[in-house]
Amino acid sequence: MADVHIKNVTRSFGDHVAVSGLDLRIADGEFVVLLGPTGAGKTTTLRLIAGLERPDAGTIEIGGHDATTLSPAERDTAFVFQQYSLYPHLSVFDNLAFPLRSPARRMPEDQIRRRVEEVARMVRIHHKLANRSTKLSGGEMQRVAIGRALVRKPAIYLMDEPLSSLDAKLRADLRLELKRIQSELGATMLYVTHDQIEAMTMADRIGILADGVLVQIGSPRAIYSEPANLHVAARLGQPAINLLPAGLLPDGGAPAGTRTIGARTEHLAIEKATNGHADGVVDWVEHLGDQNHLHVTVGPKKLVTLTDPDTDLAQGDRVVIRYRSPLYFGADGQRLM
Amino acid sequence: MAEIRVQHLRKAFGDFVAVQDSNFVVEDGEFFVMLGPSGCGKTTTLRMIAGLELPTGGQILLGGDDVTMLRARERDIAFVFQLFALYPHMNVRKNIGFPLLAQGMPSAEIRTRVEETAKLLRIDHLLDKSVSGLAGGDRQRVALGRAIVRRPKCFLMDEPLGTLDTEFRDLMVHELRELHNRIHATTVYVTHDQMEAMSMADKIAVMNHGVIEQFGSPREIYDRPATMFVADFIGSPPMNFLGFGGGLAKGAKEIVVQGARVPVPEVREDIAPTDMALGIRPEHIRFDDASRLRGAIYGTEYLGTTQIVAVETADGIIKARVPAELRLSTGDHVGLALNSARLSLFDKGSGRAVRTAVHDTASERRAQHG
User: Fold this and answer.
1) Verdict on whether the full-model pTM lies above 0.90
2) What is the per-residue pLDDT across A169-222, written as a single tens digit (0 to 9) for each?
3) Residues paired with residue B167 on neighbouring β-strands, in sequence order
4) Crossing angle between the packed helical segments A109-122 and A138-150, to the nearest 10 degrees
5) I need a surface site. Which of A57, A238, B44, B115 has the fewest CB within 10 A?
6) To which CATH superfamily is domain A242-336 assigned?
7) Chain B touched by A302 (CB under 8 Å)
8) Residues of chain B in Cβ contact (below 8 Å) with chain A
9) Which member of B222, B301, B304 has the closest CB to residue A289?
10) Which chain A residues have a beta carbon less than 8 Å from that of B176?
11) What range does the domain containing B289 cover?
């Protein structure tokens, strides 16, 4: 494993700037997740590191060496694509062994067997090693695809939404496994996704990408609790952060220049109004089972927060709402301290 | 709008029984969701209600009329496949009005109807815009408008949000439910996504292998799952199970799991000795060193306000949802304290839930509301 250092990299396709002045250092053994919508530049970044794209400007260092002009084969990266691409005519074992059997490596067969079995256990596919890859379920195929990257010990693993084609339950299981495997291996990993849950649950650091620009990078806790601007604040959290105009509710502590107040569940105290004054009215209590959402109308705005499943609030109740150290944003959308 | 009554509905394709003896009533104005994994029979049921598939047995009543053998177009329903296929060369007005034009409605009437529909969806300011220039949410609203403009007796929707990005899907789920609150059209909605079902449904039928495992409100299904399949299918993460042996006697208030005594809701039936499972929702677990039910932390998943903690116990991994402030490390040993009032008990062999005090509050509540 190695660290990867991207320095001021730009890549355009015609008029469209896919990645713009990107600076990113991924430390040895670190799990970095780039989070952004379709078209943010996530996949292009991965392809630049893998050598499938050349930057228009900037350099890429892998393990301390300039790799900018190296071919993909010379870079020692392992790529897992969104759509698993297995060799249909080969067994699970042979699919996993394939990267080790390249003529350049000359790895002895008993060593290959040991490594394949070790990885197969890691991705929990060891009971199907003899199966043809076409006889597997979607989840199993994707585990083989991930395993095929893991049999090698490259400088960095590059993963492009590898879980997005799986059903919710399997995705939840594999999230936990992938994080565990990565930390056991001490692997350097760059993982891109548009799913905030994947980013929050797996990353050591999350990079928020928007229109080819890295807007903020930090630990999930830092990105969640100290977003740099409105864009980042809105990308994380379920239900989404409430963005309310200054002055809508009493906001005594707001710094000068506050235009918008960002309030998540933990930033709001909501209680049934006892006497005359009320700030809002309960629209509806949405029972989602594990998560229960309280919808409150405040003037022209709607608030959504998590609430206790056994809350005594009900539709039509008038409530008093107070902020508890919320987030403040200025007219330019940047967070004010 | 109308009630949909399904009686002893059955569908076989050769030897394969897709739907076995289904019975349910969707009341007038209800949002009904059929939920289950692929191949469970939910889409086949929907297609029979639509008239796209003829049942092997049973009856379908729409607003009291037997429509079992009627053709699709004789049923006055709207089938929404995917919500975002629009005619790109037509403007919003023409897209919404298209189904009425196809019916041969006079153009003045079409105009009024389209405008009413657009107002309902709050897109009346976009009527003369081209659909190709619209933002995603507005495109979906136009597609919805096209479905509701005909004012059919009921709506049938088959995974209409299936291919959308998560973020956009959450938005559309609320949009659909809000629209329903405004027009109260009887709706049958098919999905494999439990979050969609929990967010939108008045009633849910959870299906598995052609059988309705449970029919009830989202809350009933979540709090009192009738089978282990339902308990596992609903919830994210789903219900945890811990195995225990022996029987249960009526009146029992405690069981022994992994050597620890666990208080449970009072048991209401006798169960002969067999393999049993204790069912625990992730949010009903707290960490408490005094508990004898113990495990080691396998991993944590930070979610912002809460976190999911996976704990490896003698009987596999248990997931707990706890506040995000709690700092925990992999390998830490923890005791698990369970919220006794909210636990479920199952017969592992049949998967059926054991009757406990949790269920009598349910029937009392039903009695109160008549």
Assistant:
1) no
2) 778 888 888 898 898 889 999 999 989 999 999 999 999 999 999 999 999 999
3) none
4) 130
5) A57
6) Nucleic acid-binding proteins (2.40.50.140)
7) no
8) 165-167, 170, 192-195, 198-199, 218-219, 222, 234-238, 281-283, 298-299, 301-306, 308, 310, 321, 324, 330
9) B222
10) none
11) 228-369
